[in-house]
Amino acid sequence: MTQAGYLGVDFIGDHDIRPYLESDPKEFHAALKQVFLERNPEKTKIAAGLATGNLWVACEGLNIGDVVLAPKPDRTYAFGTVAGGYEYHPGTELPHRRRVEWQGTFDRDSMSPELARSASSLMTVFSLAPYVSELAQLTTLETTASVDHVLAPVDIIDEVAFQMEKQLEDFLVHNWSNTQLGQEYDIYTEAGLPVGQQYPSDTGPMDILAISKDRTRLLVVELKRDRASDAVVGQIQRYMGYVQDELLEPGQTVEGVIIARTDDLRIKRALTMTRGIRFMKYRVEFHLESE
């Protein structure tokens, strides 16, 4: 949410988080997750992890000079740059704030389909890094984030387009029920709202967090992207460790799956010595039919 000159969040109301901001992110999450659950005893550990993850990013993870967007009721987005550190304003609608220099707006219809889908996510905070080039044109702001690919609208989805893994992530989420994973798991929802895409953790956001249909197994889905094989195996292990330590309810277990476009012998060799993680390839096909 925004107020004049600010970007702000709530989540835990009038609770001073300043003592935790310069601590290790794991300590931040652990302390404030407990505060959230005490204030919201009906909520799950996953809801608490989502709240504290978004709280940390908004209040500590954003750097001065970062570009931020905020949706407005008229289908436009305000844009600006972070101009200050965390401020605590108890007794207000947005007690946890960062000063922002709001510089203008642009219409949602001018956004690429990929950016529009991400920007309409029900998550409070999401990364704009994959869209840095597009945002530079929409906002006329200079951005310094580096990305491996520039995303653009696609009319026909083919193998070349899906080399851009952000599109794969969006496609997988929007077509989840038609996939093999979708027969066994659902992307995690909280209060009926999907929150499992880019779920925050203290070591970075998970690509997808899902739960088995019998609610006994959480699944961490990680796309290989352009990272080294050892790096992606280590990353999913860290995410699974976070889920095990912070999110599991009694009787639940955690599993993982790495998805890549091609076979990867290094990943397969590593996974033979790792329990609970499997490897999957994706393949996209399209067909032309005469009427």
Distance between the termini: 49 Å
Number of distinct beta strands: 13
The structure class reads alpha+beta
Rg for CA atoms:
20 Å
Total of domains? 2
Order of helices and strands: EEHHHEEEHHHEEEEEEHEHE
Protein name: DUF91 domain-containing protein
GO molecular function, one term: endonuclease activity
Domain Endonuclease NucS C-terminal: 192-280
Organism: Arthrobacter echini
Topology record:
Blueprint: E1 2-3, E2 6-9, H1 18-21, H2 25-39, H3 45-61, E3 67-71, E4 76-88, E5 96-107, H4 113-119, H5 132-139, H6 165-174, E6 185-187, E7 189-190, E8 193-194, E9 197-199, E10 206-212, E11 217-223, H7 229-247, E12 253-260, H8 265-271, E13 277-281
Parallel strand pairs: 11-12, 12-13
Antiparallel strand pairs: 1-2, 2-5, 3-4, 4-5, 6-10, 7-8, 9-10, 10-11
InterPro entries: Endonuclease_NucS, NucS_C, tRNA_endonuc-like_dom_sf
Protein name: DUF91 domain-containing protein
Domain Endonuclease NucS C-terminal: 192-280
Attribute tags:
alpha+beta; five-stranded antiparallel sheet; 2 domains; Trna Endonuclease, Chain: A, domain 1; globular; 8 helices
Detailed description of the structure:
With 291 residues, this protein is of the alpha+beta class. The protein folds into 2 domains: 1-153, no CATH class; 154-291, 3-Layer(aba) Sandwich (Trna Endonuclease, Chain: A, domain 1). It is built from 8 helices and 13 strands. It has helices at residues 18-21, 25-39, 45-61, 113-119, 132-139, 165-174, 229-247, 265-271, and strands at 2-3, 6-9, 67-71, 76-88, 96-107, 185-187, 189-190, 193-194, 197-199, 206-212, 217-223, 253-260, 277-281. The strands form 3 sheets. Strands 6, 9, 10, 11, 12 and 13 form a 6-stranded mixed β-sheet that branches. Strands 1-2-5-4-3 form a 5-stranded antiparallel β-sheet. Helix 7 runs parallel beside helix 8 (265-271). The chain is globular, with a radius of gyration of 20 Å. The chain starts with a strand and ends in a 10-residue tail after the last strand. Mean pLDDT is 82; it is low at 144-163.
